[in-house]
From TrEMBL:
Limits of the F-box domain: 4-41
Protein's recorded name: Uncharacterized protein LOC109706708 isoform X2
Top-level division of the source organism's lineage: Eukaryota
Gene3D superfamilies the record matches: Ribonuclease Inhibitor (3.80.10.10)
Pfam families: F-box (PF00646), LRR_At5g56370 (PF24758)
InterPro entries referenced in this protein's UniProt entry, alphabetically: F-box-like_dom_sf (IPR036047), F-box_dom (IPR001810), LRR_dom_sf (IPR032675), LRR_FXL15/At3g58940/PEG3-like (IPR055411)
Domain F-box/LRR-repeat protein 15/At3g58940/PEG3-like LRR: 91-187
Transmembrane domains' residue ranges: none
Organism whose genome encodes this protein: Ananas comosus
Length: 574
């Protein structure tokens, strides 16, 4: 017996569970030892077996379920994902199988791009047999008004419920079957369908709620408890709320409010100090005529918005810890430009918002991360404004923004000279180099022949002695800069192996005496991907930095810095 086959059944089941369904089933052909291993897997995703022919698809799943039912080792299946087949009889058969195997997490997922979706009627067997469910995810179905559970409520243990492109005949009756639910997502098939807030009174434990493509109607005020006594996070996406203030007041402990794609009325919520919202995310397009309570907000994310009241926005900075502006502009006639004075701010992210005017970082003593993507001429940093800044990510979308005027480049970079990680693209290199060689340099320039040509000794050069990380995210022609005695890690993305890239590597090896790690992402098909260029680089760094680790990785021609992908403002949208 081979070493893998000798492993415990539980370990083999864990290994097999990582495979797609088709490959999982093929393991039964390996040997007698593997024949029933796949039947002990704790989770099955039958959407992996999709076929354009619906009848063939159903037959495949039914055949698999028959084998599982006949296997003595398959007693319970905690998690199952079925396709949302538009056939109630088939779905009923699968639900009964799941109930017989004590399913806890059940999902009916969309497996084809229907336009529009074809809903099926949800079988009553779901409400009669699946009392042990803890997570339920349903797509493209009609939930009947008469549920008829054997014992009410039908889902006493359900904690997470997600409904996508559904119609609910009687929302109050349906949500009454889920009294313990904590995380709820409801996306209706028709945005005109009504979903009253009072329908959720039977679910007092909801802490996270997302409503999409629905209408929350105005209701008569009730003397009872608030509709959402435990709600901490509310997200509205294409949701029309008839009485936004009433909805907000029914969430006494809400901390996060996210508005996506506001209805034509725009952002209709009025926030004041009595509300507990600390995180506000708004994604337009819309005009934002808001007044923010400056004392409560900690996180503010604005995307594709027109600000009608700039002073209110600036006043809100006082309590902010994170500010993200993407494609934001001021209403016509408003003063342009912002001075960021925020004593608590730790993260500032600005992207494609040049129409705001100049963003000046004036007084942010706690700022540790600065992310700017756009025309770098619209960014300014006061001297001693960012004493604790650790990471600066500056991507300019304009070629040669300062036109070779070094003093303008220096005015921006001088207050950032103490950062531990500096990530820039080609604008930084072009502006910091005041000489360009007339002829292409050799692949690896020698120090004696080319030091004056490529390592420009600039007067009043910026002190980057504290910099521990330097990333060049696009191909650069050449570089000139002062010594970097503390540089430990150097990363270059889109390494093409061209003369300019090789000169940059030569500079890093010559000036980075403390280098520990060099990581080059080479472009497939370029000179940087060839064995000759990589061998030349290895030989050079083995001489000048013998203790540094040199690593090559493949990337596409348009692939950007992974670190930027992490820091991009969209990570705060989820």
């Amino acid at each position: 017996m081979d070493p893998i086959s000798a492993l415990h059944d539980g370990i083999l089941a864990k290994i097999v569970s990582l495979l797609p369904l088709k490959r999982m089933l093929r393991t039964s052909l390996l040997s007698r030892r593997w024949r029933l291993v796949w039947t002990t897997v704790p989770a099955f995703d039958f959407t992996d077996a999709a076929d354009d022919n619906v009848n063939v698809y159903i037959s495949r799943i039914d055949s698999c379920l028959e084998h599982l039912s006949a296997s003595p080792s398959c007693m319970t299946i905690p998690s199952i994902v079925f396709p949302a087949i538009q056939d109630s009889d088939v779905v009923d058969r699968w639900i009964r199988f799941a109930a017989a195997h004590s399913v806890q997490r059940l999902k009916f997922a969309m497996w084809m791009d229907y336009t529009p979706p074809i809903p099926f009627t949800l079988p009553l067997s779901l409400f009669q047999l699946c009392r042990g469910l803890t997570a339920l995810d349903i797509s493209s179905c009609e939930i009947p008004g008469v549920l008829e559970p054997v014992i009410s409520p039908a889902f006493p243990s359900l904690r997470s419920l997600s409904l996508f492109e559904v119609t609910i005949a009687d929302p109050r009756a349906f949500f009454a079957q889920c009294p313990a639910i904590e995380r709820l997502t409801v996306e209706l098939l028709n945005e005109a369908d009504l979903l009253p807030a009072s329908a959720f009174r039977s679910c007092p434990l909801i802490s996270t709620l997302r409503l999409a493509y629905c209408t929350v109607p105005r209701e008569t005020p009730s003397a009872g408890p608030p509709a959402f006594p435990s709600l901490r996070s509310l997200e509205l996406d294409y949701a029309r709320v008839a009485a936004p203030q009433s909805l907000l007041n029914s969430c006494p402990v809400i901390a996060e409010l996210t508005i996506r794609n506001p209805v034509p009325e725009g952002f209709a919520f009025r926030l004041d100090p009595r509300h507990t919202v600390s995180t506000l995310r708004i994604f337009g397009p819309t005009v934002l005529p808001f007044s923010l309570p400056s004392s409560s907000f900690r996180t503010l994310v604005l995307f594709d918005l027109e600000i009608a009241n700039p002073p209110a926005l600036i006043r809100a900075f006082q309590g902010l810890e994170l500010l993200s502006l993407d494609s934001v502009l001021f209403e016509t006639g408003a003063d342009s430009g912002i001075q960021v004075r925020a004593p608590r701010m730790r993260h500032l992210m600005v992207q494609d918002s040049e129409e705001l005017g100049t963003i000046v970082v004036a007084d942010t003593p706690q700022l540790c991360r600065l992310f700017y993507w756009g025309d770098i001429r619209y960014l300014g940093v006061f001297d001693r404004a960012v004493p604790k800044l650790e990471e600066a990510f500056l991507h300019c979308t304009v070629k040669n923004p300062y036109g070779g005027k070094y003093h303008l480049w220096k005015n921006l970079m001088q207050p950032l000279s103490h950062v531990r990680l500096l990530s820039v693209n080609w604008w930084f290199i072009c502006e910091s180099t005041n000489a360009v060689p007339e002829s292409p340099p050799p692949v690896v320039p020698s120090a004696k022949e080319n030091e004056d040509e490529f390592l420009i000794m600039m007067e009043n050069s910026i002190d980057l002695n504290q910099t521990e990380g330097l990333q060049i995210v696009q191909r650069v022609p050449n570089i000139g800069q002062s010594s970097l005695p503390q540089l430990k890690k150097f990363t270059m993305h889109q390494f093409s192996g061209g003369p300019g890239d090789m000169c940059l590597l030569y500079f890093v090896g010559l000036k980075g005496c403390a280098l520990q790690h060099i990581h080059l992402y080479y472009v497939k098909g370029s000179r940087g991907a060839t064995h000759r260029i990589q061998s030349t680089v290895c030989h050079y760094f083995s001489t000048c930095s013998p203790h540094a680790i040199l690593q090559f990785s493949k990337c596409s021609s348009d692939e950007n810095c992974p670190r930027h992908a992490e820091l991009c403002m969209y990570e705060f949208y989820e």
